[in-house]
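<given_protein>
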Amino acid sequence: MTDGSKILSDMNDRSREVFRRVVEGYLESGDPVGSRTLTRSMTEKLSAATIRNVMQDLEFLGLLDSPHVSAGRIPTQLGLRMFVDSLLEVGSLADEDRERIDATTGSNDQDVASLLDHVGAALSGITRGASLVLAPKVEAPIRHIEFVSLSPDRALVVLVLANGQVENRIFTPPPGQTPSSMREAANFLNALAEGKTLTELRRTITAEIGKRRQEIDVLAQDLVQSGLAVWENPGETSERLIVRGRANLIEEEGIDLERIRSLFDDLERKRDIAEFLELAETGEGVRIFIGSENKLFSLSGSSLVVSPYMNADRKIIGAVGVIGPTRLNYGRIVPIVDYTAQLVGRLMSDRGK
């Protein structure tokens, strides 16, 4: 049993109802909820003084906070977490929201990047938050690799994938490369590459170079390693984070604009793109991160609702999510994110991703 669940189980019905109504009122309005407001909605007829006493007890437990003297209470991060885990009532996906999400997949000739961009835009528009869509990595098996010298300090590496896709990257080769050493490096790679993805190939060549150091020219070793490293760089087309709806988040009242700008700067530089996917890898379904529970969003005081999506082999290949203030309408947004993730997963499976 988590700390929050134990606290909740130890509370009496009166305290539990006061707590729930304070959180629901805050999530709906964004404003502190006062005792006089609760006297009109409580199941049991209670005086404002009695409700204030209950609120003080909840504040002592760390579940509520009072931002200003006698200005009502708001939930703390612990309080929001306890509410989300134990008291949140998740609604059904509204037909209007379902139709808007489905409309993004109307064209079968969209490439994956365009499709996910449209999904992100729809998710942002529906939730009035900022949407995140992590596109799948390109991990098709390799058919052929070639190095082409362009100048003494520039070379082109061409990667032909088994699915017919061709990737080209320009990079700076180690000094002293010759056409002969480039052919040697390409021959070495092609002897090992067939049927392997780029990730698998990198692991293989690291081991093989150690075993066959005498057979491979030192310059060719450097060329192999520097040429393949081009595809390791974060932010390349093989791994794309789509961020839509920045304006929605910045327009929210009560959010530190500088912190929000810092958040989006981090996202656009993709510093934590791998961690973003890892957030969803601990299990299927939607996960909710509130404030400092996730370091990527802790500075902005935001919440993240995220869900992985999977391919036909039930392997997690990406994630979709929504960022917003901690007073998100979680009950509405959870089914939206869940449905979107399932839809994207089906689309990726149909496309063989």
